[in-house]
Design a protein that fits this description.
It is a single chain. The two termini are 24 Å apart. The chain is of the alpha+beta class and 444 residues long. It has two domains: 105 residues, no CATH class; 300 residues, no CATH class. Helix content is 60%, strand content 8%. About 1% of the residues have low confidence.
């Protein structure tokens, strides 16, 4: 039998629509097993208000009121906490099983927050710094205190679920603080301009003809087009990494209670432009190498393709870990590599909302985008140079928009991950640590 952590009385389980919750009719508190609060907040916000009305203090006399602070599910200890998505709402949390106890009145406050009746409070700026691009020494203030050792993802579905939770938390954060999306918008706009410029160049270089003349025109101009495409790709690649650096700087400022200033983020990138440029160039070389390896045919080609995919996965993870170190600690690429190696060696980078889950979420989204474009191509069947150029320009714009959102997700994830790892390193004896909001929500 579950007992209330607030007054030791037995908890009463009752359905509220499609959701069943445990509550206390003596003190009015409501208990959520691990994951139930997030499920209720996402799918059944009205159930929280109903539960708060049903479980009211004094409905059932307490024989021996005593605050236990013991988890009803696993008998672990409860501690005051704050869910990263529900700042300012009183709750007690179990670090072991992620259960949450809402005292009387918190359910109604939470429902009001979810329905927009009561806006979330915005934490005040907690510190000022002489150089706003130097925030490495500042603590995390926009997050939640959770157990130091977070259980890793237990399998495919756990990783995918945590990645989806992080995705939702990230875009709720972006909706609350749209300035975080400005660097992504700048990077996407630059790449869109490059795509349009490439399309315009193709129209100017290729005669508007059909059949064999079109093929001949393409063949005649393929060297020049290849050079231009490589140049545009390089500029777009560097712009993407520079704006990712701005995103890292903006997310870091937000998590540490600083104002989000795009000019400061841009200045931060300029101060670390050497490391960002080298990282961008190495990334482009790795992408070109793995792309070349994947084009090999035959049995050997299959093996080489697997190796190329492994190289791509390792470099993608490493590069996204290196960028926050370069931007936040103001170091070069080689110093950043040594820093990441040290963190990994000390087991400070437990990727619970794992890279696998992030890849699955972005991969499924990319598959949907590509499938939609392929379906449109099959239906429209553009013929001739001009319709083809228009279609592929639109397809390129759609792909760039999706890629921009995927890049924002990854940059936010690895920034939060680095900040958590740095906090663990700085406080080796702490039982609980403040974890950046979106990452904490994925862990809870």
């Amino acid at each position: 039998m579950k007992r209330c952590p607030g007054c030791s009385e037995p908890l009463f389980r009752r359905p509220f629509g499609a959701l069943e919750l445990d509550g206390c009719r003596s003190c009015g508190g409501v208990w959520f097993d691990g994951g139930e609060l997030g499920q209720a907040a996402r799918a059944y916000p009205d159930a929280l208000r109903e539960a708060d009305r049903f479980f009211r203090q004094g409905l059932q006399p307490s024989l021996a009121p005593q605050r236990l602070d013991v988890c009803p599910s696993c008998s672990g200890s409860l501690a005051d906490g704050e869910h990263p998505s529900f700042v300012g709402i009183a709750m007690r949390m179990c670090a072991a099983c992620r259960g949450v106890f809402l005292p009387e009145g918190s359910g109604a406050a939470l429902t009001a927050r979810l329905t927009g009746e009561a806006p979330a409070p915005v934490p005040a700026i907690v510190a000022t710094v002489a150089n706003p691009t130097s925030t490495h020494h500042l603590p995390i203030v926009r997050g939640a205190f959770i157990a130091r050792d977070v259980a890793p993802s237990s399998g495919f579905f756990s990783a995918f679920s945590r990645a989806l939770t992080f995705l939702g938390a990230t875009f709720r954060l972006a909706r609350a603080e749209p300035r975080l999306l400005v660097p992504t918008a700048i990077g996407t706009a630059i790449n869109v301009a490059l795509v349009l410029l490439m399309a315009l160049t193709a129209l100017l270089l290729i005669p508007l003809a059909g059949g064999s003349e079109t093929a001949r025109a393409l063949d005649d101009q393929k060297v020049l087009l290849g050079v231009l495409f490589a140049a545009f790709s390089f500029v777009g690649h560097v712009a993407t990494w520079a704006t990712m650096g701005m995103t890292v700087s903006a997310v870091d400022a937000y998590v540490k209670g600083q104002p989000i200033d795009i000019r400061v983020a841009a200045r931060d990138v300029l101060e670390n432009i050497g490391g960002v440029m080298v990282l961008s160039i190495v990334s482009m070389i790795v992408e070109a190498l793995t792309s070349s390896l994947r084009r090999r045919r035959g049995i050997a080609g299959l093996f080489v393709g697997v190796v190329a995919s492994a190289i791509d996965a390792v470099w993608t993870t490493l590069s996204f870990l290196l960028l926050p170190v370069i931007m936040i600690e103001d170091v070069g690429l080689f110093a950043a590599v040594a820093r990441v190696r040290g963190m990994h060696r000390n087991n400070l980078l437990t990727i619970a909302a794992s890279e696998i889950g992030i890849r699955l979420v972005t991969g499924i989204g990319g598959f949907i985008v590509v499938g939609t474009l392929a379906g449109l191509f099959a239906v429209i069947r553009p013929e001739g140079v001009l319709p083809l150029v228009v279609f592929f320009s639109v397809a390129g714009l759609a792909a760039l928009l999706f890629n921009g959102l995927a890049v924002f997700l990854r940059a936010t994830y690895y920034t939060c991950l680095y900040l958590w790892a740095a906090a663990r390193e700085a406080s080796p004896e702490a039982a609980q640590l403040c974890v950046p909001g979106p990452l904490a929500e994925a862990f809870l």
